[in-house]
Design a protein that fits this description.
Elements lengths: L1 H10 L2 H29 L30
């Protein structure tokens, strides 16, 4: 593993590697958003892209605070 990292550093600096990683993530996000736009343009619904997200609604707490009890 160290040999791979040393080899990569001999070709490019660490900053260049991080820039390439960020650029790759940006391109992947652009492709995903482009796919989403094309599918919605065709009229298909993408349920994973719906808002609000499933399970994000308010949950009711099962804990109910008991009322005051009278002394015996």
């Amino acid at each position: 593993m160290e040999g791979i990292l040393i080899e990569l550093e001999s070709f490019a600096s660490v900053g260049d590697l991080f820039a390439g990683l960020i650029l790759t993530a940006f391109v992947a996000a652009a492709i995903l958003l482009g796919y989403t736009a094309e599918e919605e343009k065709k009229g298909n619904r993408l349920f994973w892209a719906e808002w609000p997200l499933p399970g994000s609604e308010e949950t009711v707490s099962p804990f109910v605070e008991p009322g005051y009890r009278k002394a015996a």
